[in-house]
């Protein structure tokens, strides 16, 4: 599975793996030290064992009487092994007590087996991505399970309109389905529109959570944050070329661009947002955009080019209701 993790996440996962390996080794060293101090004979046995191994190699190389010599070495080797096993047993520890116990016996905490990424490394990448996302948002609280339809009214907001509850039921079902079947090559981009506190961020994070759980690379950012970050990076690197976070924004499996329209409008912000959305569309990579702005307001704030791209290529979800944030505060 090709996963669009950022360099930052990959490096963090590599560091975590390295630390895991070092810890396995350190722990084995500690066990060995304490065991040998109690049973000095065990250390002697280990040394003799490595000496017999060296002798066996030599016997094979020189060839003279190799078979007889090997036979003899094998016997003494077995005697040493069982003596060591008896020592371990009498000490009440397991057979592998003196050996390195890797967290992952498959890859020996290297992260790769035969040049392929081990499943434990994939899990680490997922954890790192999840942690980063979690640091930015209350991800743990935003799941489909904690989303309730009880906050939305049964009565239409205007005569002949759709009851908010009905609309939100549809949106909830759509998002849940979207998350369950998420595929970075096939899933469409979404535009979540609606007033404040209706659950846009909540549902987009619930989707993010599900996608991360499946091992996809997800990035969550709010428009003002990402514009600020990119502006700083551009300022620092006079190169003016694409930076790491730039590349990741374009290449991650799912980009969540929250609070579109709340960034300070400049020519930099509008061209950056246009490029981000357009490049992802060109590469058929899904983006979930959330905004308080109506279509008309979007048209006012952004170029016709951007709005027509959003309109033409995003599934539009119009959230209805009245501020859940406030309702929750009142209940508490
Ligand atoms: N249907 C719901 N069930 C449970 N909690 C909800 C629901 N909708 C929103 N919330 C909670 O209410 C708060 C506001 O929701 P959220 O941040 O998703 O709103 P939003 O539509 O993104 O608003 P804004 O436009 O201001 O960003 C969050 O704490 C969220 O978890
Ligand atoms: Mg929000």
From TrEMBL:
Coiled-coil positions: 63-90
**Entry superkingdom:** Bacteria
* NCBIfam families per UniProt: PRK06835.1
What is this protein identified as? DNA replication protein DnaC
One Pfam family recorded for the sequence:
IstB_IS21
Q: Does the keyword RNA-binding apply?
A: no
Q: A single GO BP annotation from the record?
A: DNA replication
